[in-house]
């Protein structure tokens, strides 16, 4: 009895002096005993709490859970541990942890339930602070036994990271492996476990799979805690959510791979230089363009690659890019190892690192061939215009050539002036023989026949361009057409001169010659119109279509447009030449209207005034008279433009008695008529005289220095007309 009393005294001393609260409740949860420490912890006196329902002061949200635990102890007769919230007598909320143990009677039934209650408010606040910190850094901590059978501590944030409720993880840590990527889980169960078993900390990055195709990257750091004997007592670990960082790293890596691929595989040359202008890197295309091996570019100065004369503009452009921090481009020449002089376009792009200029990228485009093409195009344009003007001038001059020797001399002169030749000559070859070539650079072109074959021999300095060949073919074509006829005409003219010397008047012969001449003019006009002119129009349309549809720089488009304008000028000039060779509608419109059209056109280009008077009566002429008078007027106007320096030209056409009278007056510088009259050396006047003679007419010329030039022409009228005009103009 004494021993029991003594034991009771000991338990009472312990119960009344411990900091934990000892509570004895019956099966109905009525408090039968509470230790005095309740007052220190919860503010209640022993008298206030004894006899009270033990769950009354528990937080309403935790009461049901605690009641179920109480019933579990009674039913299972086993102890449980739990934590919950409880109210202080002053109304504040405290966190407590409680170990509940059943007390059995002599029959083995539960008579009471003893609960040891400990205040863990400070610890809970510390844990909450830790949870807040872990939440802020997306991290979770845990501590468990060495075999991961159970966690002694696990932060609430672990659910956000692993996707598994904290309660499940604490009671069954193996559940965490269900959400780990299979490849990483195999590593954890093998290599990582072996490392921890040896007491060595691990630091691994693993992947958690919350849902399909959604991966969370986590850095797992676990430290084994060893006891005094060196055995593993527990494992403490932290999980750091590095998903955003990993995604950023992957994005950066992907971006770097794309940049590297773009850099290495770019067809343009790409390089980087530092702020001192030294090379940092370059791609294979840069190596190909410059001929410099990229492995040998380190610390080499970029400006040293530039052609000496281009140093200043390139340096200024590079300085402007660094100063204004904006891309710029420049065209320059570079000199590489064995690549020769290349023309390139370089685009400089500033490189920024953390907002600060770190260097400059360069994008190099090799435009050597394009520049050569542009220069060739410009040269071709100028060359084409020159050739076109030459052929126009040559064709116009051929209209006035009356002798074979003049035609040959004019052809030789034009070829020398236009083509790159060493020597040009007219050669005659026997009809049964072929030309004998004296060098490999010779061209022999047949132009006609006399007693022997006549060739134009050309010794070239260089190969002819396509346009030069076409020019030569056109010129030879013109000459060939005229050559045989001029040979015949010249023979006839010689006979005519002999007849004139013998006071014979072969008017029919002259008419025949002029008819032949007009026929050849018409043929040449037709050839020009149907071949050369049509070809030019076709090429003009092709060029216009090309310029409209293709992509060219503004500079090239401008040059192509100038070529189009040059073609239009050439087309216009050929049309004018065709009109001069054979005026359209001359016979249909009649002489008067055709002359008015001629004067309108001449006024646009002449520096003198033209006055034209005609009879009120209709002037009826035959075809020979219309053509003859029209050509006479053309030649007189040509003389006025080239020689007379007149400011006014007056022409009249009418009837005088039984003849048609044409009168020409100008106020030019005049000439000594005795020096030119009757001389065939002056081909213009000779042509006029012969035409008038072929029309059975008469011509009277009157001129003196500074007295102007006067011509009166009288030809028989086809049908006699009477009018008031008497044919006289006062000199």
TrEMBL record:
Top-level taxon: Bacteria
SMART domains reported in the protein's UniProt record: HATPase_c, PAC, PAS
GO cellular component: membrane
Ranges of residues in domain PAC: 80-132, 202-254
Domain PAS: 7-77, 126-199, 255-325
Record field: catalytic activity: ATP + protein L-histidine = ADP + protein N-phospho-L-histidine
GO BP: any one term: regulation of DNA-templated transcription
Database matches in Pfam families: HATPase_c, HisKA_3, PAS, PAS_3
The keyword Kinase is annotated on this UniProt entry: yes
Regions crossing the membrane: none
InterPro entries: HATPase_C_sf, HATPase_dom, His_kinase_dom, PAC, PAS, PAS-assoc_C, PAS-like_dom_sf, PAS_fold
Residue ranges annotated for the Histidine kinase domain, each copy included: 629-719
Protein name in UniProt: histidine kinase
The species this protein was found in: Heyndrickxia shackletonii
